[in-house]
Amino acid sequence: xxxxxxxxxxxxxxxxxxxxxxxxxxxxxxxxxxxxxxxxxxxxxxxxxxxxxxxxxxxxxxxxxxxxxxxxxxxxxxxxxxxxxxxxxxxxxxxxxxxxxxxxxxxxxxxxxxxxxxxxxxxxxxxxxxxxxxxxxxxxxxxxxxxxxxxxxxxxxxxxxxxxxxxxxxxxxxxxxxxxxxxxxxxxxxxxxxxxxxxxxxxxxxxxxxxxxxxxxxxxxxxxxxxxxxxxxxxxxxxxxxxxxxxx
Amino acid sequence: xxxxxxxxxxxxxxxxxxxxxxxxxxxxxxxxxxxxxxxxxxxxxxxxxxxxxxxxxxxxxxxxxxxxxxxxxxxxxxxxxxxxxxxxxxxxxxxxxxxxxxxxxxxxxxxxxxxxxxxxxxxxxxxxxxxxxxxxxxxxxxxxxxxxxxxxxxxxxxxxxxxxxxxxxxxxxxxxxxxxxxxxxxxxxxxxxxxxxxxxxxxxxxxxxxxxxxxxxxxxxxxxxxxxxxxxxxxxxxxxxxxxxxxxxxxxxxxxxxxxxxxxxxxxxxxxxxxxxxxxxxxxxxxxxxxxxxxxxxxxxxxxxxxxxxxxxxxxxxxxxxxxxxxxxxxxxxxxxxxxxxxxxxxxxxxxxxxxxxxxxxxxxxxxxxxxxxxxxxxxxxxxxxxxxxxxxxxxxxxxxxxxxxxxxxxxxxxxxxxxxxxxxxxxxxxxxxxxxxxxxxxxxxxxxxxxxxxxxxxxxxxxxxxxxxxxxxxxxxxxxxxxxxxxxxxxxxxxxxxxx
Lengths: 248, 501
Description:
Shape of chain B: globular
Strand content of chain B: under 5%
Oligomer: heterodimer
Largest sheet of chain A: 2 strands, antiparallel
Distance between the termini of chain B: 46 Å
Shape of chain A: flat
Number of domains of chain B: 1
Number of strands of chain A: 2
Distance between the termini of chain A: 67 Å
Number of helices of chain A: 9
Strand content of chain A: under 5%
Structural class of chain A: mainly alpha
Strand order of the largest sheet of chain A: 1-2
Order of helices and strands of chain B: HHHHHHHHEEHHHHHHHHHHHHH
Structural class of chain B: mainly alpha
Strand order of the largest sheet of chain B: 1-2
């Protein structure tokens, strides 16, 4: 690690130390809600201090508080506090920030909006397409396009089918995300015709399809959104038309 | 001697059962292959290979096959990391970082095939040395561990977390300890093990059962890797191989002392709780540099240097399994993932473990190392082709694998939320040079520490002297204190002065 990297790291450590300090204090306060000295609970005497559920967490968060102070002291001693207020001090890089922010947005929408509500093959295919198109080559405009398209696809199910009771059906949200996936694939093929661009649609279709079928029919495990647009059809035909071929 | 013969006879029986089971070959070949692929692709790690396969095979197939899949991938991945180290100068895994120091200069000098062949042989012998140590020492330690009670267990768990935090820290040691404490804190979530008192559940019923190990592993190891790896990278030119990969017997015989020494070092480092293959590789490389007659050429393309790191990182696997099986304390990050698989199958590694499982593990390790050896020698050129796949192509696939693997372990969609949350924390920890391994070790050992620490106090009516009145506990307490104090600036300056005089 060279001196510049170390200086950036200490500026980050300053913020990290502050965050840890606040977190430690918050959890110490939360720990105070766990009976420590055998308080009465609904007429029943709680445990002694040495058997209390609070004793170990109390030790952990106190140690964390001490370590956060040590970290802060190291950061301040090495000039981290002085540099912490400037963008250069913490090593801010606009392109890198866009890259991380767009990946974060895509992953958050994938896990929170799509996986519970959208057919797994469709949403995962869309994810693979967005990530390969957006990040292969390192073009910022493509990252923004991929994230924008993915958010567009994710917002619809999130807004229209927020409650858990609507996660499996109807399938209008599946169609919307499928549309976004197809559009993104076409756009990716227009923008680049290299080997990766040509392979991308195949990977996006085959990987989730094989995985979900292996998990559901090979390992007999639960898979996300069983009632999804494509998987419900696969499951129906597997049990009604395919499986009887060897079961009978 | 009689003891060793008994163990060998037990191992012989387990090995025979394994090699006469045709299904075992399917699992071993596929898992070792996948392991080598994971190791060979820069951006994927051995820990990630074992973690992802835990999501798939952890509790979905019989335990015997599950162990084959996970151990096969572990052995394969540690070895596979040598491919990009030698041919691209990019370590495939952290464990093979030291390998690049000499492997790449050798490849540039037109000795890439020879280097790969010797690396494969050294990794094979290294794995066998570690496995042999596992077979012998695990029983000796099991005998000792029978007398270990709650105070010792609590202090040992704490020692594992502290040691992992101390040795795995890339920057200041405080960060390693913070990571370990964060893991411990995460293990406190849910109903406490003795009184069922809810802790930090925030009214969310999912958290009553605490953080599940597999989503935490996936979040800690896979998500930061995906976020960090999704960038344009110029992989450079893969150096083409000339000559034969199959090594000469006289050459191997000439390097045998180096291989044996590195195997012993790797096994020893692996047996330390929470210290992984990367530390083993560097320690062995450092020792090799100081004792080898070829030491001055280390870093310039020395075969001795290459073998020092490669033998040690594979020998570390067997060593890392010793504390895992005997004490329930993982010896390395991939062993922590393996512990997750044990937990999924309701097996509690430690003094009460079924001895048949240990013999089975040893047999699988031997079969996996033979498979790795044969694959390495005869299909190396396939793995070299795999190096050409850009990480922007395979990391999205890994994200999908991680998602479905984590979902199917049991907690459903909530496990995915947990995975993403842990992943975000782990990413920022990576960014600020906090080691992730102590965090995971903390999560895994946190429950054990909490339960045994409080049980010790309960049995002694709150008398803290229970941690010094028992000889084993007193030794472990001293080790914990010594480890902590050894990092204090005053002590460090004192040691520096002593060394200076």
